[in-house]
Structures are given as structure tokens and as C-alpha cells.
Amino acid sequence: MRLTGFMLIMHKRLKLDSYAMKCGLVDLEHRKGTGLLAFLIIGLVLGGAVTKSYAQGICTDDDDTIRMNYSLYAEDYKNKSYETALPYLRWILKCTPTFPTGSDRNFRRAVETYAGIGLNSDDPDTRRVYLDSALYILDTAVTSLQDAGVDDV
Predict the structure, then answer these.
(1) CB 148, CB 103: distance < 8 Å
(2) Are 109 and 97 in contact (CB under 8 A)?
(3) Radius of gyration of the chain (CA)
(4) Which of 86, 97, 110, 117 measures 20 to 30 Å from 128, CA to CA?
(5) Residue 150: pLDDT band by 50, 70, 90 thresholds?
(6) pTM
């Protein structure tokens, strides 16, 4: 039987636990509850991953989904939490770039978001990537707006 993914991790964990008990490195009485804690931590991490993947998912015409993604990005943008705003802003730019006003507002905010992340980074390579992304948004905004049906660009 071939072990993959989660099964492989659990198999390795059981082997390590078994080895640690044999060597007397682990006292099971002191480990009660750690499994539950690990389960909760994994659940929280995966929950965040599901939310982010949903934000970057397939475009939809569903009004609730559009408004949810816009609201999440707009709140984080207003609070200058650019890194948490970015996945939702990317979804808006991909799926409905002119929502809600039919203007270039989302592109202006995208430039500010990428530039804000870049300028706040201590790593020169990360800074360069985000500032380059801001320039890319500037370069492609007019074409994207025209494709979205905005005539007075």
C-alpha cells in the first residue's frame, strides 16, 4: 500500500512517537491534550488557506461573492493592511475590475497596495518584486479597463 499526503505524515509521526517512547524520551502522561491542540491549530491554518483560495478562485457573477471580496479588500485597504487585502483585490481585478463605480479605483488601489507592501519590506528582492508588480498594474490598467467596457480611459 502506498502512503500519500496526510497518511504519510501520520505514519512518520507514529514511528517517531514509538521510537521516543522506547527510548524513554516521552512520557505519555504529560502529552495528554497535545493531539487536540495540534488538531485545532491545523484546522485554523487550513481554514485560512480555504478562505484565501476562495478569494483567488473562479470568477462568478454572484452578487454576494463579488460584494464579499470587495468588502474584504476594501476594509483591509482602508486599514493599510495591504498583505491581507491583496488576495481579495486580485480577485476583484481578475473578475470585476470596475466594481462598484465603473471606474479605475481598484487599479489605483492595487498600485498603492503593491507599492505599500514593497516599500515596507526590508528585503530588497521582495521590495523589487512588489514595486515591479505595481508598475505592471499601471502598464496594464488602461487595456484592462477598456476590456471591461470603460470607454473614457
Answers:
(1) no
(2) no
(3) 22
(4) 97
(5) confident
(6) 0.63
